[in-house]
Amino acid sequence: MIPAAFVILGAGMGIGAAAGGEEQTSPAAKPRPTVTVTQKPAGRAAKPAPQPTVTVTKTAKPKTSEPEAAADSDNKPAPGKAPSGKVVFKVWGSAPAGTDVTYGSDSDSREGSGLPMTKTLTLDTDALYYHVSAQLLGGGDINCSVTVDGTTKKGHASGGYNICSAQLNGGLTGGWD
């Protein structure tokens, strides 16, 4: 490749010398050809020293889609996420065939659907307990929680047709446990 470039360069120099250095000013004058030769530098360039390779391996945990509250490593909802005077019921996880969800108090039972599910009710101070129950309709892995006045109870279910349940009971001296 390089010898051919020198041949072309030499031919271009010969053509230029034959013209005698005269400038052609006629309108039909053709521009002179330009020859560009690109060469690699002679000799070998020093290769940079190889850099060490660092590999980081992380073990991924299955994702659980818990709405509105960060979960720690035990899938516990963050405490204190229920606003004052409210009860928060949550069900999250994976249930490809779906779930049957019921939630409420000893005097008020309701149905929920879809994952993740978050429902909020007004706190009834006369209620004896608040509960959430979610049954898998086939396989899956779900978590559930009920939160009253900063106190949270949680449950977990995995496998076919298992039930996740969580319940907070009203204490005799007040509060929830």
From TrEMBL:
Entry-linked InterPro entries: MmpS_C (IPR038468)
Region (Disordered): 18-85, 96-115
Compositional bias annotation for Low complexity: 45-59
Superkingdom of the source species: Bacteria
Protein name in the entry: MmpS family membrane protein
Upper lineage: Bacteria, Bacillati, Actinomycetota, Actinomycetes, Kitasatosporales
